[in-house]
Amino acid sequence: HSSMLRWGPPQTRLSCSSSPDLEKPPHSMLRHLTSKIKSTGPISVAEYMREVLTNPVTGYYVRNNMLGPDGDFITSPEISQIFGELLGVWIISEWMGAGRPKQLQLVELGPGKGSLASDILRVFSQLQSVLGEASVSLHLVEVSPTLSQLQAQNLTGNTSQEADSEDEPVYRRGKTTAGLPVCWYRRLDDVPTGFSVFVAHEFFDALPIHKFQRTEKGWREVMVDIDPEKPDHLRFVVTPSPTLASSTLVQADERRDHVEVCAEGGVIIQQLVRRITEDGGAALIADYGHDGTKTDTFRAFKGHQLHDVLASPGTADLTADVDFSYLRRMAGGGVACMGPVTQRTFLKNMGIDTRLQVLLRNCTDPNTRKQLISSYDMLTNRAKMGERFLFFSVLHQSRLAKPKKQDGLSLEKKKIPAQLPVAGFTELSFS
Ligand code: SAH
């Protein structure tokens, strides 16, 4: 099969085969949605997306292993180990910037196959001398039982254990091969408090969005309804009057004619902000997105091809670009936000070129060398993932605070220690 990357322009193709799981049409999802619409009327796009992706029985993420060359899409951590390694360095740098707290919780939202966490932890063990006595633990927020098993396999080599009862906040726990504790949760709320660095890669784009259309009568919400001509088909409709969402989620000074708002993403950002403010830490969010400029980005991918978002729901991945300006607004003024900067800029600032050279120096196999170079190109090339993907960070207010000016005149100029720059968002200079 010739297949398209989820983020990519139509001409970017990878060779992939589609997952056999997805060939079975799960009509049960369509039936579930049509009976819901019949009983309560058209549903919001957010509800449609939430049901299709994370319904506990038939949801797309719950049933499938969609990641990688054999799935529906491929992501940066799956393309190259360098990606996770550089994020590992970023996390350690932020831990140092916070004054090396004794506890470091690494919390990943939507960890996919667990590759990113695994690459980050490898860097942690290589930099053990830097981390010293800090007690490190891994916390994974994942709704999909199928993916959590795959993560457990990759990170703990199948030594993890499922909780006895379904309503335990920690539904699985184990130890990594290096002996670090790992816990799995369905919701961020269940993760224990404490100094944490949060990582979310291609997580926010999977959260449900509301869609709004500007009309002559004002903002109206776009909903999903049954097509009256074809009862087995769904179609978009625009509500005749405002909905609660359309009257609360659209900005008063909005200039676009169509907007997508991910209210759930806003809630998660606020939870992160509260934790970072109260317990210290940082969040790194990487996804494809824009800074409040794009309009209609809701789309579906199946077998690496673009797919009709309303056709055979549950068999295709649904996604929308992340609006970073909305996340920044929801974060509020109590924290410091950095970015978004492009993936290319972030990875170059993190030293991807040097890392590539080191790996190439230690590698003689021509195929591996070729693969290292092509995956570097995939991640950083402006026409590939380099500019479509953006990095955004939420930091504790004190992280960027200017050192206080010293009172009074002192003849002897004291050197005030400068803050450690935030890696990735500024070019690091070694002087
Ligand atoms: N970060 C990984 C996977 C991205 S796919 C990578 O970059 O390769 C999205 C991930 O988020 C999957 O693991 C999916 O199961 C998870 N996910 C989607 N919606 C979620 C939600 N509402 N709560 C928790 N996890 C969710």
Automatic annotation (TrEMBL):
Region (Disordered) location: 1-27
Family according to the record: Belongs to the NDUFAF7 family.
Keywords from the named record: Methyltransferase, Mitochondrion, Transferase, Transit peptide
Any one GO cellular component localisation term in the record: mitochondrion
UniProt subcellular location: Mitochondrion
Residue ranges crossing the lipid bilayer per the database entry: none
Organism in which the protein naturally occurs: Anabas testudineus (Climbing perch)
Superkingdom field: Eukaryota
EC category name: transferase
Function comment: Arginine methyltransferase involved in the assembly or stability of mitochondrial NADH:ubiquinone oxidoreductase complex (complex I). Acts by mediating symmetric dimethylation of 'Arg-118' of NDUFS2 after it assembles into the complex I, stabilizing the early intermediate complex.
Gene: NDUFAF7
E.C. number: 2.1.1.320
InterPro entries referenced in this protein's UniProt entry, alphabetically: NDUFAF7 (IPR003788), NDUFAF7_sf (IPR038375), SAM-dependent_MTases_sf (IPR029063)
Biological-process GO terms, alphabetical: methylation; mitochondrial respiratory chain complex I assembly
Organism placement in taxonomy: Eukaryota, Metazoa, Chordata, Craniata, Vertebrata
Reactions that this protein is recorded to catalyse: L-arginyl-[protein] + 2 S-adenosyl-L-methionine = N(omega),N(omega)'-dimethyl-L-arginyl-[protein] + 2 S-adenosyl-L-homocysteine + 2 H(+)
Protein name: Protein arginine methyltransferase NDUFAF7
Keyword Transferase: yes
A GO term, aspect molecular function: protein-arginine omega-N symmetric methyltransferase activity
